[in-house]
Amino acid sequence: MKIRIIAIGKTDSGWLKEGLTTYLERVKRYLKIEWLEIELNSNAKRGKAEVMILEAGKILACIKSSDYVVLLDEKGKQYRSEEFAAWLNKKFISVQEDIVFVIGGPYGFHDSVKARSSEQLSLSEMTYTHQMIRLFFTEQLYRAMTILKNEPYHHS
To answer: What value does the CA radius of gyration of the chain take, rounded to a whole number of Å?
Structure first.
């Protein structure tokens, strides 16, 4: 099993790229992980609905039928860090294939992607950019692994 993270659009800011790289490298100590960025389709000539349909097609093309798909969505279930670690541990036991986390674009997910998902998670009731969620989520993934390994990174 491996963790795959699919994100719409490239990571723009240098400081976000640096943080993302740092946490992806840390997570690799514990898990097989793959990061995939999909080209963002927004431009001035396309409307929101068209962009979401185009992005959905690209996301769904990257997902195997056996994957366990988790959308990072503001309407998803929220966990505290310890709860997320426990949730992740249960998935490691119960899911046979890859766990795929998907970070949508600025408009969120098309209904076809939501229909394909197994679950939806939210990192906060607040709204963050799809760029910042990349860093926040990879940090939480690393934090979860240190919690599961009883390492001193997380202080509760």
So the answer is: 15
Q: Domain boundaries in the chain?
A: 3-148
CA atoms of 133 and 87, how far apart (whole Å):
19
Around 36, how many Cα atoms within 13 Å sit in the side-chain half-sphere? 16
The reported pTM is: 0.94
Q: Which has more pLDDT, 128 or 25?
A: 25
Sign of CA dihedral 80, 137, 46, 112: negative
Structure confidence by residue, pLDDT tens digits, 62-121: 999 999 999 999 899 999 999 999 999 999 999 999 999 999 988 899 999 999 999 999
Q: Which CATH number fits domain 3-148: 3.40.1360.10, 3.30.160.20, 3.40.1280.10, 3.40.50.300?
A: 3.40.1280.10
Sort 120 into a burial class: Cβ within 10 Å, 0-12 / 13-18 / 19+.
middle
40: confidence class by pLDDT, cuts 50, 70, 90: confident
Asked if residues 41 and 136 have their Cβ atoms less than 8 Å apart, the reply is: no
